[in-house]
Amino acid sequence: MIDNRAETTAALKTHAKNMRRLCLQMAYSCGGSAHLGGGLSLIEATAVLYGAVMNTAHCYEYAARDKFILSKGHGVLGFYAALAEFGVIDEKLLDTFLQDGSDLIAHPVMKPELGLETSSGSLGQGISMAAGLALAAKKKGYSFQTYVLCGNGESNEGSVWEACMSAVNFGLDNFTLFLDNNHMQSDGCSENVMNVSDKYAGMLKALGFQVIEIDGNDIGQVYDAFMEPHVPGRPKAIVGNTVKGKGVSFMENNNDWHHGRLTKDQFEAALAEVEAAR
Amino acid sequence: MIEINRSKARLWSRLGARATLGQAILEAAKERDDFYVMSADLAQSSGLVRFREEFPDRFINAGIAEQNMIGLAAGMAKDGTNVFATSFSPFVTMRACEQVRMNMGYMQLNIKTVGLGSGLIMAQLGNSHFGIEDGAVMRAIPGMTVIDPADGVEIVKTVEALCDYKKPAYLRLTGGPGLPIVYEGDIDFQIGKAIQVREGKDISIIATGTMVYYGKAAAEILAQKGIDAAVIDMHTIKPLDSACVDAQLDKKLIVTVEEASIVGGLGSAVAEHLAAKRNKPAQLMLGIKDCFPHAGSYQYLLEQCGLTGEQIAADIEAAFGQMA
Fold first, then answer.
1. CA B160 and chain centroid, separation
2. DSSP code of residue B161
3. Which of B66, B133, B160, B259 does the annotation list as catalytic?
4. Interhelix angle for A264-276 vs A5-29, to 10°?
5. B57 contacts chain A (CB < 8 A)
6. Would you give the distance in Å from CA A205 to the centre of its chain?
7. What's the ipTM?
8. Which of A60-64, A73-77, A225-229, A250-254 bottoms out in mean pLDDT, i.e. has the lowest?
9. Closest Cα of chain B to A49: distance in Å?
């Protein structure tokens, strides 16, 4: 880890670019459809977490290894890409994405030795799991931090708010929620489905979270938000306003790419755009 | 190990299933510090108040939020720690069903859910609180163990066994204060191994939960009518003791009795096992007949569902008559 903020964030920006390339390669080479939009919106969060924040070496013992829970399980592209980019798994493993017998399917399947702490895919459950991990850490004196990433569409689930309530109740200042708030969901714009995505930050604040609202696709802002110390006795929430499909102009805010299949031309165009980005 | 004797068996009978659970957990906690207990705002109703007072660090109240309780339990159990998560049976098995499925089924985390007041004991509170389908729903989840103890002694033995059981399980508690006594002393209790409580050569009554007592009562009545009935306590509904079921194939009739729906529970488990056998006795399935009974006193409900000793005996006698 590099101490200097400017150098670190510059390096993370390169990592994020590589991760977008890995996402596109996985999505194209799997030969089928993949959740590109929601995978690309969370890249900066996983890049910062795996590149600068978490102690993730999978060989570390349970009590010391920081925990990351991908509650929006369909965001795997941005998750698997981080695991490969930061050496938790071999990049070659990404070639198996969605192939029969692979450990890397469309929603994470628990396999701690591959950095996959839990199985997810059913929305609204990861925050409870993360709160339980953080609560156990407090009770048992484990040093690990728990990070959970959830989506704005996912936050329609009532269980998300049960979990948030309990994180405040138990004073989990070893728990950080990153809300990938891309303002879209499966059926399109959240404002046409469940029009509250601009209210989540206020809801979390009202519950008693330490809330930091940022541009969730700005590496510097994401880095600073994760680095900001916890207020003692309070869980932290980073509401990252993001763009679904971020980094590929024909995917951005276009819900055809919530779960879509790339043609060769589209793949090449997307890859060229990601490579050209500064 | 909790000492078990006749006076304790009587005490647990007076206390009923829920308070006995609380006692068993309290006693186990004094001997070992490797488990947590959770409640969804029902510590009072679960006999867990003394445990909460004596072991405040090991008791976690999730509030009235069963889905989150199971998720929290999963996080707590992620390092292998045993977590008992308790609530009334429909809330912990059905309100939180998908959390149970993901965390206890898919991830096989070491959680023990306890369904309090299952079956019909919630009486006048109505079907919202009854445990009719809870066992069936839990049994359908891959990798889940389902246990329905017969009486206070067996509840205590089950809690002890679950403390050492490194798999997810659902503990279904039927019956209330004045719990019928099947066992007056210690028993050899093993998860997945049925207990024969009465020998008999004509028919076999395979029962679970409170119905072990009522099945035994029915067998005594049948004995006076010349029908010799074996009674088996199938406390573990899943994994089913299939060897024990196979040992009943020489009988003229197999009867399953449960304080639960006849859809998907013990009767179904036995029938599923027997389906492929060529020569097998007929099976009479007794339980709640795929309906929401009209709420009222526990006795009123048992009678409505045909689950008293006399009614069970009468149904068996009629079925046995058709066999001849």
1. 15
2. H
3. B66
4. 170
5. yes
6. 21
7. 0.95
8. A60-64
9. 20
Instruction: Note if the pTM is more than 0.90.
Output: yes
Reported as half-sphere exposure (CB side, CA atoms, 13 A), residue A234 has a value of: 16
pLDDT of residue A2: 47
Q: Note the pLDDT tens digit of each residue in B195-241.
A: 999 999 999 999 999 999 999 999 999 999 999 999 999 999 999 99
Do A57 and A26 touch, CB atoms closer than 8 A? no
- Beta carbons of A129 and B103 less than 8 Å apart: yes
Q: Looking at CA atoms only, how far is residue A224 from chain B in angstroms?
A: 27
What topology is assigned to B6-174 in CATH? Rossmann fold (3.40.50)
B104 touching chain A per CB within 8 A? no
User: Domain map of chain B by residue range?
Assistant: 6-174, 195-322
Domain B195-322 has CATH 3.40.50.920: yes
Contact between A131 and B81 using a beta-carbon 8 Å cutoff: no
Interface test with B, best of A71, A162, A172 (most B CBs within 10 A): A162
Using the beta-carbon criterion (under 8 Å), do B68 and A163 form an inter-chain contact? yes
Tell me the chain B residues in contact with residue A108 when contact means C-beta distances shorter than 8 Å.
none
Q: Assess whether the region B6-174 and the region B195-322 belong to the same CATH fold.
A: yes
| CATH number, span A5-276 | 3.40.50.970
| Strands of the sheet with A210-215, listed across from one edge | A67-70, A146-151, A175-181, A236-241, A210-215
Per the annotation, the verdict on B66 as an active-site residue is yes
Best of B61, B72, B76 to mutate (most A CBs within 10 Å, chain A): B72
**pLDDT, tens digit, for every residue of A96-113?**
999 999 999 999 999 998
